[in-house]
Design a protein that fits this description.
The structure holds two protein chains of two kinds. Chain A is an all-alpha fold. Helices cover 77% and strands 0% of the residues of chain A. Chain A is built from nine helices and no strands. In chain B, helix 2 packs across helix 5. The longest helix of chain B has 26 residues. Classes of the chains: A mainly alpha, B mainly alpha.
Chain lengths: 230, 122
């Protein structure tokens, strides 16, 4: 049997480099690769083809580490740290400059925007499922079955789309209303600002709300070790 | 990639979700027949399913480790035929209980489907 020791060690180092797998897990997978290689040697005439077959069956290290990562619950502290960082930077950016945070708060637009997004969500999935999706995303870290994750991920995917759409829709409505009243030049600037704010709310909720919630949920998916598509 | 060359059409027909859902009872069922290790479990699934269930071998381990964390199986280090360290898995009484429950659920689904498919209105 040709010496595959170097290749096996490179593969093993790849497994460990991610920091996801522990030594004993790499030992176990290495044993698997060696057994698969020995079996492949009896099936294939070329040693190189046997190696490729064994590697293909066992899985490239990137694929395996990705699967192991999914099994590791996210550290709640790292999530909080990330959220705090995003909120701080956004707060600093928005608070800096004339008008401060108040510049970005237009109560009527915000209420209309939230009503459109959450109304759309409830209309699509029902209040119960929307509530369950939010609870599953925000609370708990134990792995969820793939079916459950798919059901809830759909809620956030739709939420993300609705947030963008509602933002654009409100902006268009605001601009149209402003254009209908061009006789008052003082209203033009305010109208444009209000319309732009709706877009801002849409971007914020879609990419810093629903996208995060969806990802947190996907992190809890406990099984994707299947190769076939459906 | 499909294991071996058999039944590619059947393999394509076995949906990802169905294979995912059956992974846990499959592993528990194999271990209920005796102690085993990752590679042997994969080979067993491959033979029994006639290649219709497609897993990348290395991805079985996160499932095994989860079952172990949940107390459904236990693992011990032993030695392979070549003298290398190998991890052997064994089902626990909690695992046997879980398997009985899963068998009941799957049998119920299976029986219902057979009933519907067997009926003249199906």
């Amino acid at each position: 049997m040709p010496d595959f020791e170097d290749r096996i060690q490179v593969w093993r180092r790849g497994l460990l480099a991610s920091g996801v797998l522990m030594e004993w897990q790499a030992d176990e997978l290495e044993d698997h690769l060696r057994t698969a290689l020995a079996a492949a040697m009896t099936e294939e005439q070329s040693a190189l083809r046997a190696w490729r077959l064994a590697l293909e069956r066992t899985g490239e290290f990137e694929l395996i580490t990705a699967e192991f990562k999914k099994e590791q619950p996210m550290n709640p502290m790292s999530r909080l740290l990330g959220i705090a960082l995003v909120i701080t930077v956004l707060g600093l950016l928005l608070g800096h400059g004339p008008g401060g945070l108040g510049l970005f708060l237009h109560l009527t637009s915000l209420i209309c925007f939230l009503a459109l997004v959450f109304g759309g969500l409830v209309a699509s999935f029902g209040l119960k499922r929307v509530g369950q999706a939010f609870r599953a995303s925000m609370l708990g870290s134990t792995p969820l079955e793939i079916d459950e994750v798919s059901r809830f991920v759909e809620v956030f995917r739709t939420g993300q789309r609705l947030a963008w759409t509602s933002g654009v829709l409100l902006a268009i409505i605001g601009l149209l209303q402003m254009m209908a009243n061009l006789s008052d030049p003082g209203m033009i600037g305010r109208g444009i600002a209000t319309a732009t704010l709706s877009l801002f709310y849409g971007a914020l909720l879609a990419e810093f709300g629903f996208a995060y919630a969806r990802q947190w949920l996907e992190n809890r998916s406990c099984f994707s070790a299947v190769k076939s598509g459906d | 990639m499909v294991w071996g060359s058999q039944s590619p059409i059947l393999a394509a027909m076995t949906s990802k979700k169905l294979v995912a859902a059956s992974s846990e009872p499959l592993v528990l069922s194999i271990l209920s027949q005796g102690e085993s290790y990752g590679y042997a479990i994969i080979q067993r699934v491959r033979r029994v399913s006639k290649d219709t269930l497609q897993w990348t071998d290395g991805m079985l381990y996160p499932i095994l480790h989860r079952l172990e964390r949940n107390g459904l199986i236990v693992a011990t280090w032993g030695e392979s035929e070549t003298g290398r360290r190998r991890r052997y898995y064994r089902i626990t009484s909690k695992g046997k209980q879980a398997l009985s429950e899963q068998k009941r659920e799957w049998s119920s689904v299976h029986a219902t489907l057979l009933q519907v498919w067997g009926s003249p209105h199906a």
